[in-house]
Design goal:
By secondary structure, the chain is mostly helical. The chain has one domain. The chain contains 4 helices and no strands. It is elongated, with a radius of gyration of 17 Å. 16% of the residues are buried.
Length: 142
Protein backbone atom coordinates (compact mmCIF):
# COMPACT_ATOMS: atom_id res chain seq x y z
CA UNK A 1 0.00 0.00 0.00
CA UNK A 2 2.89 2.33 0.75
CA UNK A 3 4.15 1.94 -2.82
CA UNK A 4 0.72 2.79 -4.25
CA UNK A 5 0.52 5.96 -2.11
CA UNK A 6 3.99 7.01 -3.28
CA UNK A 7 3.02 6.31 -6.89
CA UNK A 8 -0.09 8.50 -6.77
CA UNK A 9 1.58 11.22 -4.70
CA UNK A 10 4.40 11.62 -7.21
CA UNK A 11 1.88 11.73 -10.07
CA UNK A 12 -0.05 14.52 -8.32
CA UNK A 13 3.17 16.48 -7.78
CA UNK A 14 4.11 16.15 -11.46
CA UNK A 15 0.63 17.24 -12.61
CA UNK A 16 0.56 20.26 -10.27
CA UNK A 17 4.10 21.26 -11.30
CA UNK A 18 3.20 21.00 -14.99
CA UNK A 19 0.04 23.08 -14.61
CA UNK A 20 1.93 25.66 -12.53
CA UNK A 21 4.70 25.87 -15.16
CA UNK A 22 2.22 26.43 -17.99
CA UNK A 23 0.13 29.01 -16.09
CA UNK A 24 3.19 30.93 -14.89
CA UNK A 25 4.73 30.88 -18.36
CA UNK A 26 1.66 32.49 -19.92
CA UNK A 27 1.28 35.00 -17.05
CA UNK A 28 4.79 36.40 -17.57
CA UNK A 29 6.35 38.11 -20.55
CA UNK A 30 7.86 34.83 -21.72
CA UNK A 31 8.11 34.48 -25.50
CA UNK A 32 5.12 32.77 -27.10
CA UNK A 33 6.07 31.31 -30.46
CA UNK A 34 6.20 28.04 -32.37
CA UNK A 35 8.42 26.48 -29.66
CA UNK A 36 5.77 27.23 -27.05
CA UNK A 37 3.19 25.27 -29.00
CA UNK A 38 5.52 22.42 -30.00
CA UNK A 39 6.48 22.07 -26.34
CA UNK A 40 2.83 21.93 -25.29
CA UNK A 41 2.07 19.39 -28.04
CA UNK A 42 4.78 17.14 -26.63
CA UNK A 43 4.14 17.83 -22.94
CA UNK A 44 0.41 17.33 -22.60
CA UNK A 45 -0.13 14.02 -24.46
CA UNK A 46 3.09 12.52 -23.08
CA UNK A 47 2.07 13.49 -19.53
CA UNK A 48 -1.32 11.83 -20.03
CA UNK A 49 0.31 8.62 -21.32
CA UNK A 50 2.94 8.78 -18.56
CA UNK A 51 0.15 8.93 -15.95
CA UNK A 52 -1.79 6.10 -17.59
CA UNK A 53 1.40 4.00 -17.75
CA UNK A 54 2.19 4.52 -14.08
CA UNK A 55 -1.38 3.67 -13.08
CA UNK A 56 -1.43 0.54 -15.28
CA UNK A 57 1.88 -0.55 -13.79
CA UNK A 58 0.13 -0.55 -10.43
CA UNK A 59 1.95 -2.32 -7.60
CA UNK A 60 4.69 -3.37 -10.03
CA UNK A 61 6.03 0.19 -9.95
CA UNK A 62 9.25 0.16 -7.94
CA UNK A 63 12.05 2.65 -7.40
CA UNK A 64 14.61 -0.11 -7.88
CA UNK A 65 14.35 -2.93 -10.39
CA UNK A 66 12.28 -5.83 -9.07
CA UNK A 67 10.16 -8.43 -10.81
CA UNK A 68 6.86 -8.80 -8.98
CA UNK A 69 4.54 -9.22 -11.92
CA UNK A 70 4.90 -8.99 -15.69
CA UNK A 71 2.53 -6.23 -16.84
CA UNK A 72 1.50 -6.88 -20.45
CA UNK A 73 -1.87 -5.19 -20.84
CA UNK A 74 -3.01 -1.64 -21.59
CA UNK A 75 -0.20 0.52 -22.94
CA UNK A 76 2.22 -2.25 -21.95
CA UNK A 77 0.68 -4.44 -24.62
CA UNK A 78 2.48 -2.36 -27.27
CA UNK A 79 5.31 -0.57 -25.42
CA UNK A 80 7.55 -2.31 -22.85
CA UNK A 81 8.78 0.87 -21.13
CA UNK A 82 6.11 3.55 -21.55
CA UNK A 83 6.96 5.30 -18.27
CA UNK A 84 10.52 5.92 -19.47
CA UNK A 85 9.48 6.72 -23.03
CA UNK A 86 6.70 9.18 -22.19
CA UNK A 87 8.72 10.65 -19.32
CA UNK A 88 11.56 11.49 -21.69
CA UNK A 89 9.15 12.96 -24.26
CA UNK A 90 7.52 15.03 -21.52
CA UNK A 91 10.90 16.43 -20.41
CA UNK A 92 11.78 17.21 -24.04
CA UNK A 93 8.47 19.06 -24.32
CA UNK A 94 9.25 21.10 -21.19
CA UNK A 95 12.68 22.04 -22.56
CA UNK A 96 11.19 23.15 -25.87
CA UNK A 97 8.28 24.93 -24.12
CA UNK A 98 10.56 27.00 -21.85
CA UNK A 99 13.05 27.41 -24.71
CA UNK A 100 16.16 26.57 -22.72
CA UNK A 101 17.75 24.48 -25.45
CA UNK A 102 21.07 24.03 -23.65
CA UNK A 103 19.13 21.67 -21.35
CA UNK A 104 19.04 19.22 -24.28
CA UNK A 105 22.54 18.20 -23.18
CA UNK A 106 21.14 17.08 -19.82
CA UNK A 107 18.19 15.42 -21.61
CA UNK A 108 20.64 13.36 -23.68
CA UNK A 109 22.32 12.29 -20.45
CA UNK A 110 18.92 11.24 -19.10
CA UNK A 111 18.42 9.05 -22.16
CA UNK A 112 21.64 7.18 -21.41
CA UNK A 113 20.71 6.82 -17.73
CA UNK A 114 17.26 5.47 -18.61
CA UNK A 115 18.73 3.03 -21.14
CA UNK A 116 20.97 1.64 -18.39
CA UNK A 117 17.97 1.24 -16.08
CA UNK A 118 16.01 -0.45 -18.85
CA UNK A 119 18.85 -2.88 -19.55
CA UNK A 120 19.04 -3.75 -15.84
CA UNK A 121 15.26 -4.16 -15.53
CA UNK A 122 15.08 -6.32 -18.64
CA UNK A 123 17.79 -8.59 -17.28
CA UNK A 124 15.86 -9.03 -14.02
CA UNK A 125 12.57 -9.62 -15.86
CA UNK A 126 14.20 -12.16 -18.18
CA UNK A 127 15.68 -14.03 -15.21
CA UNK A 128 12.32 -14.12 -13.42
CA UNK A 129 9.90 -14.72 -16.31
CA UNK A 130 12.18 -16.40 -18.87
CA UNK A 131 10.52 -17.36 -22.14
CA UNK A 132 7.33 -15.47 -21.26
CA UNK A 133 9.32 -12.22 -21.06
CA UNK A 134 11.33 -12.95 -24.21
CA UNK A 135 8.10 -13.46 -26.18
CA UNK A 136 6.64 -10.26 -24.71
CA UNK A 137 9.84 -8.42 -25.59
CA UNK A 138 9.69 -9.68 -29.16
CA UNK A 139 6.06 -8.60 -29.56
CA UNK A 140 6.49 -5.05 -28.20
CA UNK A 141 8.34 -1.86 -29.04
CA UNK A 142 10.91 -0.13 -26.78
Amino acid sequence: MKNKTYNYLTLIIVIVACITLIVQYFKTDSPINIYTYIGLLLMIPSLVFFIISRIQLGSSFQLSAKANKLVTDGIYKKIRHPVYFFGLIFILGVIIFIQLFYLLIIWCGLIFMQMRRIKNEEKILEEKFGEQYLKYKKDTWF
